[in-house]
User: Fold these one by one.
Assistant:
Number 1:
Amino acid sequence: DQQVKQNSPSLSVQEGRISILNCDYTNSMFDYFLWYKKYPAEGPTFLISISSIKDKNEDGRFTVFLNKSAKHLSLHIVPSQPGDSAVYFCAASASGGSARQLTFGSGTQLTVLP
Amino acid sequence: DSGVTQTPKHLITATGQRVTLRCSPRSGDLSVYWYQQSLDQGLQFLIQYYNGEERAKGNILERFSAQQFPDLHSELNLSSLELGDSALYFCASSVDPGNTEAFFGQGTRLTVV
């Protein structure tokens, strides 16, 4: 049972336009959400996060939106750049005792076309 | 460079064999996580250690085991390997077990033939 789902395996966007990556989750215990970016032959790198007490978090060109009622989050990249081409993983965490571990989605390959 | 070092980068072995994957966390990080990424799958959490002790377990098979040593490096042992164990194995570290902004190594690609 996939608790974190990224239903689009790939997305192509023109340089300068907006990229919107989507993520759905099923576990209502999740209270912290993260996006990771992964280039080939490298490990995932942390991009941006959001706590369940917020509905939006912004960092430069990257904004994450959280809709708790729909159990949906999205990552907006504006403007998109060719260097943004990578696999983007959505991840979620539930507070449970003192240990947290991330549940990842299967990733979305973003290609930004010059 | 995340500061997390994993060795080896690539490993090819036969079914039934046993391998050990090694991870050195970022300097100062006490918590180590292991993840498995199979083809077209997201990262699956396997196990977490904090300061030498097991802290949380995920979907880790009984054939797999891990430990964290006093110098905080960690090893993931995979035994009786099967073709389906072929995957990327990532190690991540964080300062404490409650910190979810983990830093990942570049992974070990295991191929079982």
Number 2:
Amino acid sequence: RKEVEQDPGPFNVPEGATVAFNCTYSNSASQSFFWYRQDCRKEPKLLMSVYSSGNEDGRFTAQLNRASQYISLLIRDSKLSDSATYLCVVNIPQVTGTASKLTFGTGTRLQVTL
Amino acid sequence: DTEVTQTPKHLVMGMTNKKSLKCEQHMGHRAMYWYKQKAKKPPELMFVYSYEKLSINESVPSRFSPECPNSSLLNLHLHALQPEDSALYLCASSQVGTVSGANVLTFGAGSRLTVL
């Protein structure tokens, strides 16, 4: 089983639609969860961190379900500019005092159309 | 303006060449990372440095040799690469431990490598 898995997509949605992405992770010791956005031929950029209680930033809502080991991202009122690849990132803790292994899911491509 | 700077942006090299990719950050981050990304694939972790010491090597072939001269700089030395090593090489940095912002990666714009 892969350490981090995502819906492969692509998701093609009309402007204004609501779209949801899921991501599952295999290591129960993981403590940090993130959603990144990557535009074509650009570097990934942090969209939002995911907290236990769930968190919202404008049209974007992230949820964490530790029992089932998955995180989700909900985008409401999709805009053309939301078209990108969405990557979930999960940490795998290492030896105390060293950086975690930060592993990316396979990514889900979103295309928002008129 | 990106806070992680990578040079060069593009590099073309032959299989017998030796070249280096460079990365610099001035955010006071004590973890630095090299990722490799092929087209339509996610970034794949190669190396992690924590406090200037190599803490993770994801079984990367020895033709890739990382170096962390100080807390702001990260290099990736390349020698005898293969055409299948052609990819976007991304450098990132983060805080370490439980401080605010730990594990949040800030990426450079990447170095696009073509091996002929």
Number 3:
Amino acid sequence: DIQLTQSPSTLPASLGERVTISCRASQSISNSLNWYQQKPDGTVKRLIYSTSTLESGVPSRFSGSGSGTDYSLSISSLESEDFAMYYCLQYATYPYTFGAGTKLELK
Amino acid sequence: QVQLKESGPGLVQPSQTLSLTCTVSGFSLTSYHVSWVRQPPGKGLEWMGVIWTGGSTAYNSLLKSRLSISRDTSKSQVFLKMNSLQTEDTATYYCARGTTGRDWGQGVMVTVSS
């Protein structure tokens, strides 16, 4: 199975700050990577698919990039509603696998 | 408006079988795949499996021997059945539209305990 290593596991940040979350795959996944946001009430939302394509309705402050084994999610200017858990998912190979998650918290 | 809603028992005894239903609206099961994902308390997400538009399925190899996903297109429902439950199967179970979850249900918490 492909392992996804997400870092950091916790990311303290301030409003207005730019942050980046990393997701490294144990083998090349050819841009088959999505990013999800999970709020404390359990609500899950897909933010980005195919590495860098923003879901409809997702603010443009979110962006994704990467290739091969290394991918990242960036938020250009944090707003209060962005503080949540973030997960990456690879769908290059079954079984699909998630990263362990990054908790973005208010500093 | 796309909606998915999971339902099922909140408590299941060890060694028993879990049966969950995902009722969808706003799209057809013959046009979109539906996946199941679970999350143990305080832990991350685990992809469980998918039922394709044509009715065939793919499962996480770690769960394959215990897991079955089926559907009733006339009722817009997808079913998850998993047998031989253990306490480690305690989790919130989500269904989602598409193989990688374009839209998600709110989840249903299942506790495995005697």
